[in-house]
Amino acid sequence: MIEVNNIEVKPKYFLPKLRIALCLECSKHFESLRSKDTIRTSFINEIKSTSIENQDTVNIHIGDDETITFTAKHLAEIQEIFNQMPKQ
Question: Treating both helix axes as pointing N-terminal to C-terminal, what angle do 37-49 and 24-34 enclose, rounded to 10 degrees?
Answer without folding.
Answer: 100
